Amino acid sequence: MAGGGGRPCSPQRALLGMVAIMAVVAEARWGAPGRGSGGNVYVKMFTNSPSLVCMDLSLSQEEIIDPKYSWTGPDGRNLEGRGYANLTGSGELMLVGFQESMSGAYTCTLSHRIIETSAQEEVDVRDTYRFMVYAYREANHVYQVSVRFTAKGCELAANARFVEELKKIMESLISDLTCGVKGPSYRCHSLEAPHRGSPSELFITFQVNPFAPGWEDLCSRLPQDCEDTTNRRAQEATERIGEFFRKQTYALKHQFQTVPTIHYVEGSFSVTPIDSCRPGFGRNNITHRSCAGCCVVCSPGTYSPDSAGSCRVCAGRRTAGYGAKSCP
Q1: Beta bridge partners of 136
Q2: Which of 66, 115, 202, 245 has minimal CB crowding within 10 Å?
Q3: Parallel, antiparallel, or unpaired for β 39-44 and 121-137?
Q4: Mean pLDDT of the region 26-39
């Protein structure tokens, strides 16, 4: 940035400037800044951003003559008077109650003067700082479930029909929680086991996630975010499904005189929690390496329709804005 020889430095101002630039409020994360820019800033949904300071560390250690600050938002319009933009006379900006639609480039222009003491001249200087600000969320929980069922053979059409019926049963168990069953997929293998001949078994896997139709309406009734609620619902849904399979073991032992051809293999139920991102958000540890593991809002031109965990590129010419769940 522009400097100026012969300007006195105020120790108090230098210290305050360093503190202001380094200060970060809870729930916000900084990326690595570059020369002439403020760098990347990651703000958790519904929290306030850190104070974005309209100067670099070097300039903060100098006395600034006649400073004037002007902030513009991602739409290119001045932020003065915007309800969500908290501006101070010293050029600091705090974004209040951050949401995905507020993501984008925030630019500040600092106009000031330099007095060249040797030539007794005043020079007008303009310095520009650019911050890329992204909304992020903590990961949601999706549960990968695995179960096994015996089968009469691996080439039977009845196997696929059974898996589809099983899915309907599980969805009905958790429908009131607005959770969904993704999948299931299955493979059939022939096994040799002592005293069991050579039965075939269906290895079935599926995911339980809290993003079934209606989840957005449920979240909209909450005062702020609903991460805790969605995570709790997914956990409860998985527990219900686990109880369903445990009851299969009891039924086989006490309620059936003849064991069905397709039946649950005792003790085969297992659950693995998987971190995922809700639609409109994704993880990219290369693009957003300073917020690795965060679910960062999808940038314009990308979208995330499900809980797959990454943002996809829109194929058409028309591009979506921040946080898109589909392409226009």
Answers
A1: 44, 296
A2: 66
A3: parallel
A4: 48
